[in-house]
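Record format v2
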Amino acid sequence: MVKNFADKLVEAVKMKGSSICVGLDPRLDKIPKFLKMKAIEDGDKTPFGAAASAILEFNKGIIDAVKDLVPVVKPQIAFYEIFGHEGIRCYEETLKYAKLQGLLTIADAKRNDIGSTAEAYAQAFLGETVLFEGDEEVIMPAFDADAVTVTPYLGWDGIKPFIEECKKYGKGIFILDKTSNPSSSDLQDLEVMERDGAIEKKTGKALYEIVGHLIDSWGANDIGENGYSFVGAVVGATFPEQAKRLREIMPNAYFLVPGYGAQGGKASDVAVCFGGGSAGLGEKGLGAIVNNSRGITNAYEILGYDESKYAEAAREAVMKMKMDLAGVM
Amino acid sequence: MVKNFADKLVEAVKMKGSSICVGLDPRLDKIPKFLKMKAIEDGDKTPFGAAASAILEFNKGIIDAVKDLVPVVKPQIAFYEIFGHEGIRCYEETLKYAKLQGLLTIADAKRNDIGSTAEAYAQAFLGETVLFEGDEEVIMPAFDADAVTVTPYLGWDGIKPFIEECKKYGKGIFILDKTSNPSSSDLQDLEVMERDGAIEKKTGKALYEIVGHLIDSWGANDIGENGYSFVGAVVGATFPEQAKRLREIMPNAYFLVPGYGAQGGKASDVAVCFGGGSAGLGEKGLGAIVNNSRGITNAYEILGYDESKYAEAAREAVMKMKMDLAGVM
């Protein structure tokens, strides 16, 4: 039987003693020069190839430095797509390396589309691809992440194909609900009416709450041993009041929480995201993984280290974040 | 001065005498066998590499067959991502080849994220990437599509970085509004309230209408000579009533219309999507481009041709579609 992704996540969180997710969102101008020079010295690279190689080395350094402290890493694919197919090669290698080092991986890709296309995305990120070798059919994974982020705007059609791959391969999804950016209110906070036939009634609910109820129902059939579903939610640390409400609406959803650190979210803000599951709101330390990208990968700048010490600085930043989160648990 | 993408599109539509967009959404099981064998004979390919090469040849055949009949092609990136970085190489080459053959290209990627990440997506698909060569900075495009599809769920933050690249490079975006899939109603048809301070009032508007108003305002500063903005909208052919309403709400938006053909949308359904612009609702044939993917790329099956004639069949399907659309104009 395939293990529920949510149970894998709980296990990893308990083993590492932390709910930190390291965001691998590399920016070339923050990659230490010695790594860029090495990429060029290593041979016949195009500028795209050299950039991708430098970033891969950088990522490996970060992963090695934090792998005993965190359960999961989350590379944001936009920062790889700007290097075209070489960037995607680096993305694949990063996921593969993280997995080899015992980390779970979340492909932050915010994908979705109509059903038949969502199926292709789901296969790409979570499942396997049907290929050929001569006359023979061969099946191999493309990205093989443990989970992927997904947008809700197309409704159930766009979610279902992902859920099918999750079931088959023990993978997970995190559906965008209340995002961490300032203008997330443009759509997500709109107040929604309910209609019962010809009768309209006010729900008093915002769109993000409706999406929360949808996520809760979409994940209801796939709850693991710890009371969490492999259908999780993205809930920004920058809106603690809304996060608290969503924790009530989705007791079985694991939250992926962006917005801590550089975007302004504090440990006290993310505290409300924890809870849920079979232990209810009582057991803290489960129910949410808190992402930090720049605060960890650029820690050498923030903490005033030489860039050659970027990995040590990342480790220090993770330990500080761990203490910061522990303070509010 | 950079030419507005909407004007480029109008020019191309007039030159080709058609508003058809050919969707390049390849499925390996529909790629003719002789192309797969050729890919293997051509040398040391991995299964992913061989698949990507076969698809690239297939796409080139389609492009050659339809390039004098249509203004634009739209490769859906999910169908390339399932082949990992080799698929993305094929995606880049497909965009490049289409451009060389005088076609406009829409990267159907439905991207979006918070501002700083949306910036990376916008650079990847529409703009340029900053790289290095030794100590020198070099700047090159990654995908260099003419336009990209974008999701609205994160609000203005996620749209603005795309608009900046559009301005700089003469590119366009199509923002998802009312999508063609059955469950698009889950979120998009929800009825929304308006709040004026403490006073609530019913708008009587659905979310897709609110999104329409947002798209209209987001594109208002970037209207070209023909009265269309480079900020367009995705409006499904499968919901003609809603499309009609959206045509009124967004008089300056060019519509990208999926759902014709395989998904059930008819020529009479898409007719309401045309109009708008400086010529108003009178001038038909402008204001919308109608996508057809499977109906063209799999035409050899549908029309009963041998698979070696897939390109001829695609041409015939485009000509039939052209007549079908002309019948309702």
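Chain B touches chain A through 78 residues (CB under 8 Å).
Chain B has one domain: 5-115+143-326.
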